[in-house]
């Protein structure tokens, strides 16, 4: 049996997991303006706590997730992660009934906890299930599942929660306190049915994963890509991993800024929310374009590091473009950051874990912890935008892309033994 056929079913199953990641992760872009209205939040800073609550779970729970995986293996760990996500989804029901923002944030943290376990399991799995040199290609395929899910999630949830929101906001300003509370309660209740359905789907898929024939990677499989782990006593002795973790931190930060702030940014430029709610989907479309390019060019025409260099340069160009232009062109530059960000995760992750052998699970957890960039960067952007404006504040992304460029040029090879160097 050829490798492509051997790994087809595992890739489909893991692809469905990436679909789930995308569906929940990119809902945040719509949840931010939705909860700002439903919970009557006073500032963008408060609304961006949606991203913070979601992504901070990765930092807190990634290392515990690696311990769970060592006990359960990849397959059972994925199933447990899905069940935890289902519990978080069910918490949306009492949060909506009480219209309690803190409870919404706690529910998002629980969903993020489940995702931390899923991500800690599935990213090294898809990287190591085939040759490390083509890992970015496989992760790019997973990225298509992820971003298609994000586009679908935004369209569905936007229709359910934000379809008539412009007229609703105008009407809220004319109502007395009791009528306003009733209308806000109706708005908050719109998430109950979709999150209840998602909980059922997650539990069903967890059972499917646990009972499936998904092959379990053995320690021998994890060490086959390199003997570089020999003689190492700690995962922290791998310089390229630590530099990769920083690259993941800043990459996720700028990716979340591009996807989750673009709606509010559009509204600050006087676009109606009924229009601006589609801006995240435009960003995800450009990410899809990048993934498709990665699938057909890596590693046949470009190495993973070369693709990462190109994306980092595009990130600098589009960030500056967003700052120096106005109106729709500026919004378009933010959306085009989806193209710049598209191949960063597919390239950084395998470059950072290459040659770690028995340390792979723990290294994966460290990289998943670095997703905390998505928790930190939106809050920095919110505060910075209060000082210099929503448009100029995007300049904060430029240093991040420059660091990613450094990692793509030199950082991914730092500390590697010459005899174990790969042409990645």
TrEMBL record:
Main location per the UniProt record: membrane
PROSITE patterns: MFS
Record Gene3D superfamilies: MFS general substrate transporter like domains
Record membrane topology: Multi-pass membrane protein
UniProt KW Transmembrane helix keyword: yes
Tree of life domain: Bacteria
Keywords: Cell membrane, Membrane, Transmembrane, Transmembrane helix
Domain Major facilitator superfamily (MFS) profile intervals: 1-224
Alphabetized Pfam families for the sequence: MFS_1
Transmembrane parts of this sequence: 7-27, 47-69, 78-95, 101-118, 139-162, 192-214, 235-258, 278-298, 310-328, 334-353, 365-382, 388-409
Subcellular location: Cell inner membrane
Keyword Transport belongs to the record: no
InterPro entries in alphabetical order: Glc/Gal_transptr_bac (IPR005964), MFS (IPR011701), MFS_dom (IPR020846), MFS_trans_sf (IPR036259), MFS_TsgA-like (IPR050375)
Function: Intake of glucose and galactose.
PANTHER family according to UniProt: L-FUCOSE-PROTON SYMPORTER, N-ACETYL GLUCOSAMINE TRANSPORTER NAGP
Similarity comment: Belongs to the major facilitator superfamily. FHS transporter (TC 2.A.1.7) family.
Name by which UniProt lists this protein: Sugar MFS transporter
Protein's organism: Ohtaekwangia kribbensis
């Amino acid at each position: 049996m050829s490798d492509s056929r051997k790994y087809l079913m595992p890739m489909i199953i893991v692809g469905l997991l990436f679909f789930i990641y995308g569906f929940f992760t990119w809902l945040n872009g719509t949840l931010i303006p939705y909860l700002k209205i439903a919970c009557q939040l006073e500032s963008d800073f408060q609304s961006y706590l949606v991203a913070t609550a979601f992504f901070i779970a990765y930092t807190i729970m990634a290392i515990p997730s690696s311990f769970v995986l060592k006990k359960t293996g990849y397959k059972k760990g994925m199933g447990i992660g899905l069940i935890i996500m289902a519990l978080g989804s069910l918490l949306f029901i009492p949060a909506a009934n009480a219209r309690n923002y803190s409870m919404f944030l706690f529910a998002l943290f629980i969903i993020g906890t489940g995702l931390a376990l899923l991500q800690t399991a599935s990213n090294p799995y898809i990287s190591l299930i085939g040759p490390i040199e083509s890992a970015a290609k496989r992760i790019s395929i997973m990225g298509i599942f992820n971003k298609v899910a994000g586009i679908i999630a935004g369209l569905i949830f936007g229709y359910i929660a934000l379809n008539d929101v412009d007229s609703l906001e105008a009407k809220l300003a004319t109502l007395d306190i009791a009528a306003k509370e009733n209308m806000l309660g109706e708005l908050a209740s719109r998430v109950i049915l979709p999150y209840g359905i998602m909980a059922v789907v997650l539990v069903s898929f967890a059972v499917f994963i646990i009972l499936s024939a998904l092959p379990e990677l053995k320690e021998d499989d994890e060490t086959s890509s390199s003997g570089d782990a020999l003689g190492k006593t700690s995962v922290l002795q791998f310089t390229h991993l630590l530099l990769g973790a920083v690259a993941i931190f800043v990459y996720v930060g700028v990716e979340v800024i591009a996807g989750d702030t673009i709606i509010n940014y559009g509204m600050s430029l006087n676009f109606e929310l009924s229009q601006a709610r589609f801006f995240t989907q435009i960003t995800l479309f450009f990410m899809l374009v990048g993934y498709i390019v990665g699938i057909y060019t890596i590693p046949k025409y470009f190495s993973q590091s070369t693709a990462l260099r190109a994306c980092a340069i595009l990130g600098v160009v589009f960030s500056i473009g967003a700052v120096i232009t106005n109106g729709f062109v500026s919004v378009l530059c933010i959306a085009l950051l989806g193209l710049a960000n598209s191949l960063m995760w597919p390239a950084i992750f395998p470059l950072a874990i290459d040659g770690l052998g028995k340390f792979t699970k723990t290294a994966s957890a460290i990289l998943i912890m670095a997703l905390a960039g998505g928790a930190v960067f939106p809050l920095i952007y919110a505060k910075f935008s209060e000082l210099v404006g929503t448009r100029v504040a995007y300049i904060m992304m430029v240093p991040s892309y420059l660091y990613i460029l450094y990692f793509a040029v030199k950082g991914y090879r730092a500390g590697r033994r010459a005899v174990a160097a790969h042409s990645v």
